[in-house]
Fold these 2 entries.
Entry 1:
Amino acid sequence: MKHTYVLLLIGLVLFGAFLAGCTQQQVSTTPSQALKIGVVASLTGPSSTTGKDVWQSAQLAADEINAKGGVYVKDLGKSVPIVLVQGDDESTREGGQKAVSKMITQDNVDMLVGGFSSAVVSAHQSIVAEHNVPYIITGASTPVITRRTDVNTSYMFHHAPTTDDSGSQTTLFIDNVIRPAINNKFGYPAERPLKLAVLYQDSPYGKGHLEAIKNTIANNSLKINLVSQETFKMGESDFRTALTSIKSADPDVVYVAAFLNEQIPIETQAMRDVDLKKIFIAIEPNDDPDFYKGVGKYGDYSIIQSRFSPYTVPKGPTETAYKKFVSDFDKKYGGFPGMMGVATYEGVYIGAKAVENAGTLNKTAVKNAIATLQMPQIVENMQGQTINFSQDFRESKFDLTMEQLVWDTAVNETRPKIVSPANLKESEFVLPDWYVPAKA
Amino acid sequence: MDIGLDIFLQVLVWGLYAGCIYILLATGLNLIFGVMKVVNFAHGQLLMIGAYVTFSFFVLTGFNPYVLLAASIPILILIGVSIERLCFRPILGTGKLNEIFISIGLIYILENVAAMIWTDEWKVIQSPFESITVAVGDMKIPVDYLIIIVTTVIILVALYIFLKKSRLGLAVRATSQNRKAAMLVGINVERMDMLSFGIGAGLAGAAGTLWVVSGQVFNPYMGSVPAVKAFAIVIIGGLGSIPGAIIGGLLLGIAENFTVLTIGGAWKDAVAFLILIIVLIIKPTGLFGEEAE
């Protein structure tokens, strides 16, 4: 019996050691003085592909800053290196709470960067608020993240376009570019309203887009009629009935607020199964090599709203930085960093700059420094070419592009061409020959 | 909204298609439960592996993905037999908790193995018949869905003939009906366990192939949702009843799609459990279930 207990104890100790070994800890031993940044990323679970991009992009930024001597902290009278701490949210709310709580209370991070979906970020915001840790959120598209009132979000800064931003810019594009193109091509009166169908994910992300579309139409008195609003659960893969319903509403354009794993079957099933010959609009998280590969020829002539594309670089002041970042990332890790990756890369730079400006690692001072930051844009095109956070809801503002996918026989996939805004335009928006408009 | 006859029929086809995938999954699950009285929570992961097997052979050989049923079914049968031998047989009869935790553990193991082999990025392939449609009245139905429905019927008929007409099938049914009596008349019930687990896994493999052929995306984590639906179908149809799984699968596939059409996609997953509650209130053993021993 005694032996059994001893064996049991040894087993428990070994199991504990195994578990400890399984848990991803800090990247390196922490120097006595360092800027410790906790990176909130989905490193396991369904969103782990994006999570890996987030973590690796943060590493790339930290390595670059450290190679230049680190971050100068006036209070310490010297530069300190950045040490990243990995916080795997496991693609779940609970995982995010656990990771953030550990990074704040055990790893004593100076700030947090990252955060993926709105649902996961919302769930751990109260922990961040309780400990007043500066948090640069580089995912989570819902504007509610920094606007909610049930949690003190004053230490949280949103460095990603919100659904308000992307929904509004996309709706204006539909009215300014697609509607006139349809009316011209088919001889309709210029004032003919465009019939819009919306297929959206039943989540803050999807609902945020729907809300933004409605508000933009109302606030700008746009000639757009919403003829169909269909919803689906996150992770859905069968959209045939929703698309059949949309087809029966006879829209001109179908606006889809979905993730990549949903967007691919939506466009494929629409064209292939339901014969819905309309212009489809995808939203920025989809601008990824996997999307082009997955959607194949069914994506031809569709529109994708973007800010960081794998296949087209907006001409302008960020072109060189864009190419360098993509190339450095590819050399170091292989592949394309994605939008969450680039935002997190910038997030680390923003954090470092804020600490330099604050001259201290004191969290309140760093928070104030982020709030008043005026930093030249890094890789992504920002409004006014400057990274700063709005006074009201602490959101940075991006210049978004609208791209049209065109079949490229050289690669046997579609490739994007920027069709808006005018200053970055690579080609004109085109209505394909197979396109069938709504009945007048 | 006005639902015309053409929309009604179109949605019915989508419902039948969804029902086919559910039927294959739920029938396998029911066969395993019927014989072994084991609930395999990792059954959706077998569908996922079937999808990847099809994908891999398609990429390697370029064969028509329907032909690859000839690869996915036997490979999944082998995987199923291995799982039964290595994981379930040693703990059979040691308590339901052990069986439950083994099958929950298998979910994570199979997902991680798949992510290791195929990465966790979303994959998709297209059927060679993707551009062919069949005109039914005013409707154009892609021929793939008709092939999927016919293929499912063929598989089910083959299963029926095996279970009803062959000696081995008779032995499987006997084990399912009364394990002790089957042993007493000389049936090797452990072999029947292995066989039923293999067939169940093979049916999940077939579901995986048909999932892929219809242009659905998949990654290592896609198995859980279809598995939950299959469990609901098993309970709706009656534990251990194969006709119950068929009727339950069709009922759910069609009900889900008409729910999307009439109430909205947000209610699609809820309808399975709504039907389940209604069926259990009216007939606690499920539509075709018998009183428990």
Entry 2:
Amino acid sequence: MTGVPLSAYLVLALVLFCIGLYGALTKRNAVIVLISIELMLNAANINLVAFSKFGVTPSITGQVFSLFTITIAAAEAAVGLAILMSLYRNRKTVNVDEMDIMKH
Amino acid sequence: MNVYLLSLLVFSPLLGILMISLMPKKEERTIKQFGFFGTLPPLILSFFLCSQYYSGVALSAFSIKVDWIRFGNLEMYDPKLFAVNYELGLDGLSLSFILLTTIVSSLAAMASIYIKQGWKGYYLLFLILEIGMLGVFTAENLILFFIFFEMTLVPAFFLIGRWGFLEREKASYYFLIYNGIGSAVLLVAILILFARTGTTNIAALTQMMTMGGVSLFAPISSSMKYGLCLAFLIAFAIKLPVFPFHSWMVRVHAEAHPSIVMVHAGVLLKIGAYGIIRFAMGIFPEQYESLALALVLMGVISFLYGAWLAMVQTDFKLVLAYSSISHMGIVMMGLGALNEAGLQGAVFQVISHGLIAALLFFLVGALYERTGSTMLPNLGGLARSMPVFSGFLLACGLASLGLPGMSGFISEFMVFLGLFKGQPLLAAIAVIGLIFTAIYILRAVMLMTFGKNDSLEEKEKRDIEGWELVPALVLLGLIIAIGVYPNLLGGPIQSTIEAVMLALGGR
Amino acid sequence: MMENAWLIPIFPLVTFLVLLLSGGRLRERGAYIGIIFTLASFVLSVLALVERLTAPTYKTTMDWLSIGGTQLTAGFEINQLNALMLVIVSFVSLLVQIYSLGYMKGEERFSTFYAYLGFFTFAMLGLVMAPNLVQLYFFWELVGVGSFLLIGFYFYRQEAKDAAKKAFIMTRIGDVGLLIGIILLFWETGSFEYEEIFQAVQAGVIPDGSITLIAILIFIGAVGKSGQFPLHTWLPDAMEGPTPVSALIHAATMVAAGVYLVATMFPLFLASDAAMQVVAVTGGFTAIFAASIATVQKDIKRVLAYSTISQLGFMMLALGTAGYVAGVFHLMTHAFFKALLFLAAGSVIHAIHTQDIERMGGLWGRLKWTGPLFLAGTLAISGFPLLSGFFSKDEILMAAWANGNYFLFSLAVITSFLTAFYMFRLFFMIFAGESRIQAEQVKESPAIMLLPMLVLGILAVVGGYIQTPWFGTFLGEWLVEGNEAVLGSGHSEGPVWIMLLAVLIALAGIFLAYMIYAKTKLPREWLVKKDSTLYRILENKFYIDEIYYFTIVQLIKGIGLFLSYVERFIIGGLVTTVTGSIEGLGKIGSKLQSGQVQQYGMIAFLGLAVLLVIFALTGGYLR
């Protein structure tokens, strides 16, 4: 069977991860930063699934883990957006640059 | 019984700690008594050890080794690898240091009667300090050594910072900063050794480095060994201390309470010399040998520099502080001489200075109690109002300047004997220091005791008496005993010195 | 008896300990303890000497300190020289202690004084019994401490305090030289024992240069102890101690230790011509130097002090010109007559309570015993014919002549003249002429003080007859017995005119002093004007003290001050720099703490990248 080779999955994941990393480190809008973080998590998920099929000992573990990650990522996004909302309410901004003080 | 004896010795001050911690804060008298009694178990045990040694029991019989911490999973190669065991052991050298520790601690605990407040905390910290000191001299591996080493730093920091004179807090920060840097360097060196060899056992390391034993890992290059040797030397040179690392010690001597300084000058500084002999010299003999000239140079500079500065001080405590630097310079010169006479002289000097400094600071404490001042211009004529005190002060001063019949002479004589063989030119420069020593000691002692004007107020005129005679007599007795019959101390340390010399090339 | 000789120094030590521990409670009774114990050591010393006259040298040792494979030993030895020294030391000490019973009467710290005397005697006896150099050095320093305690006995007096300190430090300078010499000798010969050292020296295993160096270093020790130029300045100042102490320290014991040291190490010195030359020249120069100062001093004890320095110079001169017997012989006679002179001077001071000889005079009739005894001592030291000093001085002149060093010989002759002159100047100024003191106040000293003086007086007169050109040279032959090859013969032969010259010189000196100070036929300024430069130089002892003060002392103080600035600013600055830079680092660190999460993330990412690169390059291990 001539399927898609492992390296293709990994390259896709790498590209996604780099985009995510770039976004998380450079974008000023907090919503974009959160989205970028989601991108990185999903890059990791692709890797997990890819290795669960093409790894040294293929098993279901990788897929199970990616399910966990998706769930947790959803929770994390919810919490993150909630914090963002309250920040916005208090500071009237979603700009990451301006969120450099812990206390109010 | 035998194998637990050392652990019992090291941790026996815990008994005192337990008793004191159960007591109410206000019970000054009881706390002081128990504080003193708390130092007795180690004293008795160390005497017992000593008697065992003289009755012919091999000191190795007291070694104890218990598995403790293990890193990694390398049992299949060698169960010794990456294991930090709880191992205590003893040889002639550490036995003499332990005796020094227990004796000086007990006497210092006695002298701590002069402490005016916070007795409970004081004695708790004091006894913890004693555990640390005893542990340092018995630890058989570097990690354990380091733990006990740090255990001396923390109580000492608080003891200096809380119960001293006016600038005590500054002094204790100096103490902390310098010793902190020293410990950091020491820790790095220990960890590198551990990572590279898989063991911290001193005997195993010595074997590995000197005999070229097999290591599982890549061999350590010689420049790495230089670096490690240097790291040990720096760490312990700060502790000793020698020029230019000395300024913390001057402050500590001047600002800490005299009974703390008794322990500090008497024992804590000696860890530096002990460490150099054990680690720098023992583990890296080849590298040590090529660094020896620098050590001698540092020793000579400290010896002369300390003596010179001691000549111009106006505070008796500062005279003693600089004199300690000067005397530690002698230790360094002996260690750098690279022969038996020098090394043995250095060990003698360490022990002898421990006793002499303890006695001198005890006298300072007794004096301060009466006069409230140790400034030389304020003092004078004490020979009339306090003849016994003055006698002790003079005797101790003479011991400090190396009068024959006292321990100081034996050590200075041997160090110079060794140094004239090893580095004749530097030795010839250094002997001038002997004259300076005489000058500053006599200047200080005579300013205090001679002269017409009596500095004491009428109500303060009481000589040292009663219990105060005990520390003075015990210490002076030991100083004279070693001075008159040096083989008393020479015997036990002989085997250790021979072993170290053998690794150095047996010269 | 000789195997029990170790008891000799122990007795005075026991005195010291007993009196010290009794803490002054014994008061005057302490003196009797001291005297009894010293008597015991004197008796033992005499017994040992008598036995040594016939028996061979006795030596015993035990292990004392092991350094690696080398064993240092401690023990004692009784040979000719130290048997003689034991008797001299214990005898003079005994007499001084008896004398002090009278002299120190009423002193508050009576038993302390005897304790110190005991300690000093112990150290000195230990010194002369030492069979090796380490032990010698051991007691050598203890002698220094003993003298320190005794000189500083009146601790509340500023002068006594300074004198004691000076004595200790000046002799310490010499001691350091001795210490280096001993150590170098050990590395050359591998031993501290006299015998082995001398064997090595004779076997010629030591290079010539080293022998000279070592011998000179050892001689520096002797220079310090024996008050030779340039380390002599402590000795006159040491007169601040009680007068009996001066008699003990400056006549028979401590200052003689230097001469004893050179005599003991004589084979070593003989092996180096240069070292012998140094000894002889130093001795000769010191002799005339100190004698010239003594001619103008006004303090009775200071005159005697400079006289002591001068006489010690004589002994060194003798030893340096290979006159072993002459040096030791003069050491012995000097011990008797100088002790006598000091005790007599003490008696004078005791009677009139001043030490200034310009305020004395006309005491001859008042002090019926002290006067003649003082005269006997003065005659003996001046080399008046048939008294002890005459024979020993004659022996020295012979030795110098026989050695062929005519310059030193003439120095010695001039010094003899000066000696006779200043001693009789002293004598006449005290005893002749008008009385300047109210008669009622002058009282002769008690019998307890006169008795020791009488004994010493007899010895000062007859002590020389054990070594004369006419009745045999018993002492000399006994001293060199079994060692003639090294030490030379027991007697130096020389032309007869030397003896005549010595007599004439002595008489000339006495006559001149008589004319100036007794008859006052010649004005006092006949020789030197009082306001002339020469007089001022002599009166101020060649300004040696001042020179030392303004050069060495100031230099040391200056450097000390300089170093304390170094300590404060450079070392202190170093510490401030370290703490400052750590603080600065912290400040930079807190600036990095910007709150910009993205920045943190970037740094973390870069750090990871660097770590990965290192890992890729090294494989994870530092080499």
